[in-house]
Specification:
This protein is α/β, with parallel strands linked by helices. 30% of the residues lie in helices and 28% in strands. It is globular and about 65 Å long. Bound molecules: shikimate-3-phosphate (S3P). The site of shikimate-3-phosphate has 10 residues, from helix 6.
């Protein structure tokens, strides 16, 4: 356990680049491992979650190497060529790694076991076990469909048509990855569009994926099975989910002016920018460009007094990981902010709805929590700031940890964490990067 506190800080200024996108990093390693030839990855996130994926791909026969210049090379085994891992795959904290790998393995005739930390072992896997069983994989899971879990991939994987019961890019991706080694067409229908990095990355590696949008806003994704994927170059943009921390910090610490460079702005991920704009944030996108199929830009934020508003449920999939830090923005806004459509927050690395509500209350912020909504009463426009002064339990959740550290930067009293070590999951170097902007920690 590493305790850490953030302190009320002066203006945050400067230009920084946050680490690579976690979702894209996992997918680059996995697809590189089932492509033929070499994949070179630039900007891979070297956080604990992604390193678990790298180890798992090695355990299943791919060669995964890091060069001294920070580049990574994966030599793949081809679709269907994964080897049976000799030992249990250690997935740490990573829901994305385990769910996507379950998909990849479901289409191969190999057996694998997974375990993870206490947070991951409490997360529901039934949402992937259900469709992957239809593909033909067999599962022996712990009570409630959780980790530790052993699975046997299908001998003759079936191409399935699956309509997602929850808006989850992980479930969608698991089905698509299983479909890579099934004959014929695997179809996923998603009622609400979720991040499309798997679709884009499979196409980038030479797979055949078509996506059609239907009038009701749902999407139909069709993947042709058994493609010959070829090793490719992948450039990983900076993670918008990590950029959200300095961006919100600059929005709430008076007189700040911060640029976060090279941020991935895929429209299915960039809800946080819209929400902050709705709250009156002064955000500009500079030099928007396309790199390796993803929209990227430098995001500049200058301090502005935020205002409360309603953040609609329809935006949830595009900012699902950014709610904790958006609640922190709301705590500093003038008036009430109402967040709707938050049911999925309850099954993240922690129950982010109740953990955030509790920590905010302990920091002197008034909140009302419903099953799937939260109202935050902000202190903006009043004579007082957020009182702070709490010690928050992070529950092995990196985003809870970083969100409360951002809260402390604009609070009257320090905000402390019982354990800051989960930050390594997704944002190695968080403290140093924030300090380079002027943030104070003790
Ligand atoms: C992810 C999808 C989201 C997100 C997670 C990464 C992905 O999870 O919360 O951090 O890379 O596909 P869900 O699919 O559970 O919404």
């Amino acid at each position: 356990m590493v305790s850490l506190s953030s302190l009320n800080s002066g203006p945050l200024t400067g230009s920084v680049r946050v680490p690579g996108d976690k979702s894209i990093s996992h997918r680059a390693l996995m697809l590189g491992a089932v492509a033929l030839g070499k994949t070179h990855i630039t900007g891979l996130l070297e956080g604990e979650d992604v390193l678990c994926t790298a180890d798992a791909m090695r355990a299943m026969g791919a060669q995964v190497e890091r060069f001294e210049n920070g580049g990574w090379e994966v030599s793949g085994v081809g679709v269907g060529g994964l080897l049976q891992p000799r030992e249990t795959l250690e997935m740490g904290n990573s829901g994305t790694a385990v769910r996507l790998l379950m998909g990849l393995i479901a289409g191969c005739n190999i057996k694998a076991s997974f375990k993870g930390d206490a947070s991951l072992s409490s997360r529901p896997m039934k949402r992937v076990i259900d469709p992957l069983s239809q593909v033909g994989a067999l599962f022996e899971a712990s009570e409630g469909g959780r980790l530790p879990l052993t699975m046997q991939g299908a001998e003759d994987p079936m191409p399935i048509t699956y309509e997602l019961p929850v808006a989850s890019a992980q479930v969608k991706s698991a089905v698509m990855l299983a479909g890579l080694n099934a004959p014929g067409e695997t179809v996923v229908i998603e009622p609400k569009p979720t991040r499309d990095h798997s679709e884009k990355m499979i196409a980038h590696f030479g797979g055949d994926v078509s996506v059609s949008e239907r009038p009701d806003g749902s999407r139909r994704i069709v993947l042709k099975g058994r493609p010959e994927l070829k090793g490719r170059d992948v450039i990983v943009p900076a993670d918008i989910s990590s950029a959200a921390f300095p961006l919100v910090a600059a929005s709430i610490v008076p007189d700040s002016d911060v640029v976060v460079t090279g941020v991935g702005l895929n429209p299915l991920r960039a809800g946080v920018v819209e929400s902050l704009k709705d709250m009156g944030a002064d955000i500009e996108i500079l030099d928007q460009r396309t790199e390796a199929g993803e929209i990227v830009g430098d995001v500049r934020v200058r301090y502005s007094g935020l205002k409360g508003c309603t953040i609609p449920a329809s935006r949830a999939p595009a900012q699902i990981d950014e709610y904790p830090v958006l609640f922190v923005a709301a705590a500093n806004a003038q008036g009430q902010t109402r967040f709707e459509g938050l049911e999925e927050l309850r099954v993240k690395e922690s129950d982010r709805l109740s953990v955030m509500a509790e920590g905010l209350k302990a920091s002197g912020v008034e909140v009302e929590e419903g099953d799937d909504w939260l109202v935050v009463h902000g202190t903006g426009g009043t004579a007082r700031s957020v009182p702070g002064g709490a010690t928050v339990t992070t529950h092995l959740d990196h985003r809870i940890a970083m969100s409360f550290l951002v809260l402390g930067l604009a609070a009257d009293n320090p905000v402390s964490l019982d354990d800051a070590s989960p930050i390594e999951t997704s944002f190695p170097g968080f403290q140093t990067l924030m300090e380079s902007l002027g943030a104070k920690f003790s």
